[in-house]
Amino acid sequence: ITCIILTHRRIRIATNYFIVSLALSELPMSAFDAIFNFLYASHNVWHFGEEFCRFQNRFPIATIFVSIHSVRAVAAERYMAIMHPLKPRLAAGSIRVITGITWLVAFGLAFPRCSYPEITMDDGTMRCVVVWPDDTGSK
């Protein structure tokens, strides 16, 4: 879908650019999250090291935020197109700025999860857990 939108000038509209952002956020989610979470959930043992534990607790969360905010941008753009049809559409520069801010905010919101993951040993089994500061054992 990304190639089609980028190669055909006629379908380069704001909604499709936000859909490209959505597609690009879902691609790493399926590559980096699905397989590793399936293996971790099925065996309940973390085999992938401490650095990947940090990566795994930040990157998929950020891509989920990008997905959510890309859908939100599509909804806002469609709302404006329907409710205010005579107002000018978003320019390409504005779309790039909105998309860039979406990605930056998403990685910023996911940053705390990157700071606190640890590899713990539980009955001789390695686990990747997020240990929040001042956590009193409650979830």
From TrEMBL:
InterPro entries given for it?
GPCR_Rhodpsn, GPCR_Rhodpsn_7TM, Neurokn_rcpt
Species in which this protein is naturally found = Rhinopomastus cyanomelas (Common scimitarbill)
Localization in the cell: Cell membrane
Entry membrane topology: Multi-pass membrane protein
Q: Return the SUPFAM superfamilies for the record.
A: Family A G protein-coupled receptor-like (SSF81321)
Q: Which residues form the G-protein coupled receptors family 1 profile domain?
A: 1-139
Q: Know the name of this protein?
A: NK2R protein
Cysteine pairings via disulfide bonds: 53-128
Query: Where do transmembrane segments lie in this chain?
Result: 17-39, 93-111
The organism that produces this protein has a lineage beginning with: Eukaryota, Metazoa, Chordata, Craniata, Vertebrata
The Gene Ontology biological process annotation of the record reads: positive regulation of flagellated sperm motility
What UniProt keywords are attached to this protein's entry?
Cell membrane, Disulfide bond, G-protein coupled receptor, Lipoprotein, Membrane, Palmitate, Receptor, Transducer, Transmembrane, Transmembrane helix
Offer a single GO CC term for the protein: sperm midpiece
